[in-house]
Amino acid sequence: MRIYEGSPRQDFEEVLRSIGAVLDQRAMREISLTETPEGFIVQGLVLDQAGSSWTESYGQQHKETLQFVDDDIARFMEEGAARRDQPTPVQSHGDAGQYESALRVIGHYIDQQHPRDVFFFEQEGAYVLRLLMASQTGARHMLVEFTRDDIGQLVAQAPAARYMPGAEKASPGTPR
Fold first, then answer.
1. Which among 34, 62, 87, 147 has the fewest CB atoms less than 10 Å away?
2. Can you give the pTM of this predicted structure?
3. Could you read off the pLDDT of 24-76 as tens digits, one per residue?
4. Residues 6+ positions from 176 with CB-CB distance below 8 Å
5. How far apart are CA 119 and CA 127, in angstroms?
């Protein structure tokens, strides 16, 4: 990742996890994420709760675009670490929201690939990633798909793999 190169603490796994927590707070759905030289652009659907009559009581969905620059992401990461460090009566890994968990395991996969650029979109819990990869013949795009079941499996396996020294996390994503 261009804006985080050289920093062992800031990687795709933690960056996407922190962005995912923000998306969970905003109740965003059906997201797309594009890496830019300045950070990330995220688009998704949100529910506007400003209905004024009984016919609008459920609100209207609209597309929202968010731009996160490196300072935003650094702040999100610090807030996330502080939130996770707070002792709770029953602290579990299930406390993370849908996007915080899913984007974390996707970020881990991306870290293993070392891409030059990242774009992905989500639809109904499945993700399609387009990674710009360096190769001996120049840069090329690689497409990878994670089904809803793949994401669920990776999220379920993550705590065990995190605490086993030398354990490799499985990557059910299907390269195309």
1. 87
2. 0.79
3. 999 999 999 999 988 999 999 998 876 555 555 567 899 999 999 989 998 99
4. 142, 143, 144, 145
5. 10
Q: Of 145, 140, 153, 105, whose CA–CA distance to 126 is shortest?
A: 145
Q: Domain ranges in the chain?
A: 2-85+96-175
Q: How far apart are CA 14 and CA 16, in angstroms?
A: 6
CA gap 117, 137 in Å, rounded: 17
CA atoms within 13 A on the CB side of 44: 28
Tokens of 38: 């300045």
Place of tokens 């929201």: 97
And the tokens for 154?
């990776």
Q: Which helix (H) or strand (E) segment is 71 a member of?
A: helix 70-85
33's tokens: 């994420």
* Three-state SS at 18: helix
- Amino acid letter, 25: Q
Place of tokens 């922190």: 18
Place of tokens 């996390």: 169
pLDDT, tens digit, 9 for 90 and up, residues 103-127:
999 999 999 998 989 999 999 999 9
Q: Per-residue DSSP letters for 73-115?
A: HHHHHHHHHHHHHS--TT--GGGS-HHHHHHHHHHHHHHHH--
Identify residue 13 by its one-letter amino acid code: E
